[in-house]
Amino acid sequence: MNIILFGAPGAGKGTQSALLVERKGMKQISTGDIFREHIRQETRLGVEAKSFMDAGNLVPDEIVVGMVEDVLKDLGGQSFILDGFPRTVPQAESLEVMLQSNSLKIDKALFLEVPRDVLIARLAGRRVCTGCGATYHTLVKKPAMAGICDLCGANVEQRKDDKEDVVLTRLEAYETSTAPLKAYFTKKGRFVTVSGVGETEDIYKRLIAHI
Ligand code: AP5
Ligand code: MG
Questions:
Q1: Residue 122 falls in the annotated catalytic set
Q2: In whole numbers, what is the pLDDT of the chain averaged over residues?
Q3: Is 31 in the pocket of ligand 1 (CB under 6 A)?
Q4: Burial class, 74, CB count within 10 angstroms (exposed 0-12 / middle 13-18 / buried 19+)
Q5: pLDDT number for residue 76
Q6: Is the shortest distance between the CB of 85 and ligand 1 below 6 Å?
Q7: Could you tell me the fold of the domain covering 3-114+178-208?
Q8: Three-point CA angle 112, 118, 120, nearest 5°
Q9: Which residues pair with 145 in a beta bridge?
Q10: What are the tens digits of pLDDT across the range 97-150?
Q11: Percent of the chain scoring above 70 in pLDDT
């Protein structure tokens, strides 16, 4: 079972993907996480992506598509979750070509629907481990020791693009470039909307009912 987990910034794509990885053995392909790793390692791809990400804008399609293609080639039959890709109609069209040439298919595109005020509150409070990438929240999911990851002991910090002004730019990019994909997926007939509001475990149950 291969899925696209689709939703606005802060919808809970990363949080739900982590549960699917842990409980269902799926592989998470988060383009945002892959870019952040490239930035950390100061690769050429990281240098290319950094200015777009820091400003809250989308990285150009050709850069993202080339990166995803490399990952898809290397899956070895493992079920996967696309988290944060595709994010534009051209990316979705490129994905179709890449899937076909690698004999892969997407079974469902699951949309986590969350109102804007909830998205903003989630992103404002999000903190992320600098070591293993685990996600926390200042109000609803605090690490046991302030600023320290429960899982690996590294520092927990705010993502640069979670600052308020950058969040607004990201939400605008989502509305302009990504939300139109709902119509694209609906036409393809494998699109399911799931409420992304409420307890993490309840949302997981809603998602898993479709997987
Ligand atoms: P990316 O890293 O993908 O960011 P995003 O899409 O903006 O999504 P987020 O990671 O911010 O949110 P999420 O849905 O994963 O929420 P999370 O689970 O963390 O992309 C970053 C950047 O990379 C982009 O801006 C762009 O520049 C570039 N990029 C990446 N892919 C690209 C592409 N395809 N094309 C072009 N550019 C691309 O949850 C958020 C917070 O809420 C956390 O604190 C969490 O603990 C909390 N939370 C989660 N669920 C709940 C709940 N049920 N109740 C309460 N709190 C909750
Ligand atoms: Mg994420």
A1: no
A2: 96
A3: yes
A4: exposed
A5: 86
A6: yes
A7: Rossmann fold (3.40.50)
A8: 105
A9: 148
A10: 999 999 999 999 999 999 999 999 999 999 999 999 999 999 999 999 999 999
A11: 100
Residue 28 is predicted with a pLDDT of 97
Overall average pLDDT of the 159-187 stretch: 96
Clarify whether 126 is annotated catalytic. yes
- Confidence at residue 77, expressed as pLDDT on a 0 to 100 scale: 87
Catalytic residue among 27, 50, 141, 159: 159
Extents of the domains making up the chain: 3-114+178-208
Told to judge if 87 belongs to the known catalytic residues of this protein, a careful annotator would answer yes
The number of helices, as runs of H, and strands, as runs of E, in the chain is 9, 8
Q: Distance from the CA of 30 to the center of ligand 2, in angstroms?
A: 7
Q: Of 36, 108, 122, 170, which one is the catalytic site residue?
A: 170
Nearest CA to ligand 1 atom 19: 14
Distance 18 CA to ligand 1 centre (A): 12
Cis peptide before 60 (omega within 30 of 0): no
**Sheet containing 108-113: order of strands:** 27-30, 80-83, 3-6, 108-113, 191-195
Enumerate residues 6+ apart whose C-beta is below 8 A from 191.
Answer: 108, 109, 111, 182, 185
> In what helix (H) or strand (E) does residue 30 lie, and over which residues does it extend?
strand 27-30
Query: Above 90 in pLDDT, residue 50?
Result: yes
Query: What is the C-alpha separation between 23 and 101, in angstroms, rounded?
Result: 29
Ligand 1 site-directed mutation target among 34, 137, 139, 168, most atoms within 8 Å of CB: 137
Q: 126: closest CA among 42, 26, 13?
A: 13
Residue 17 has a CB neighbour count (10 Å cut-off) of 24
